[in-house]
Design a protein that fits this description.
This is DUF1543 domain-containing protein. By secondary structure, this protein is mostly beta strands. It has one domain: Ubiquitin-like (UB roll) (Roll), CATH 3.10.20. It has three helices and ten strands; from the N terminus they run E-E-H-E-E-E-E-E-H-E-H-E-E. Strand 4 and strand 5 form a beta hairpin. The radius of gyration is 16 Å and the shape is globular.
């Protein structure tokens, strides 16, 4: 069964003094099947990119998540939100991200502010994306996120964490 996977990837980028990270989404039957695509899409040094984790996205924010080849007709959308903020004494901006279900971007941001980085200074959203727009287009198939209410679902932990060079 084709599953939506969220990948946390990192690597080196020319001109940067520290490793940079990104989130990518892909639809595959096995998480490793996306590795060539992840490497090809990396904006930095393609010889120094790696996967730190991958997570199946089957439930979020009270909804089951499935993929279909037809667009979803409901008003809800699946949003990826990356929040930023600051901790006293720490010079770096800290981040936390999650998936949220809402009819529009503003409602998704409001929901994320209730859940992510609730104890930091100056919390703000750094990134907001509709997950359907993050799925790569393929000449063979296009996948769409479908959402089905399920208040008793659970958020999946990463299926794998570590350092996997691409």
């Amino acid at each position: 069964m084709t599953t939506l996977f969220m990948y946390y990837i990192g690597g080196r980028v020319q001109g940067a003094n520290i490793e940079l990270h990104d989130i990518q989404f892909a639809a595959h039957t096995h998480p490793q099947a996306a590795f060539p695509q992840l490497k090809a899409n990396w904006f930095g040094d393609k010889n120094r990119v790696h996967v730190d984790s991958y997570t199946p996205c089957r439930w979020a924010d009270g909804y089951d998540i499935t993929l279909h080849t037809e667009p979803f007709s409901g008003p809800e959308k699946l949003w990826f939100i990356n929040m930023g903020g600051y901790l006293p004494g720490n010079p770096a901006e800290v981040h936390q991200f999650g998936l949220f279900v809402a009819p529009d971007a503003e409602a998704a941001k409001q929901r994320a502010r209730q859940v992510l980085l609730t104890r930091v200074l100056q919390p703000h959203h750094d990134d907001l994306r509709e997950v359907d727009d993050c799925l790569p287009l393929s000449l063979l198939e296009r996948w769409y996120v479908h959402l089905h209410p399920n208040p008793s679902g659970t958020l999946a932990a990463p299926l794998w964490q570590g350092y996997q060079p691409l």
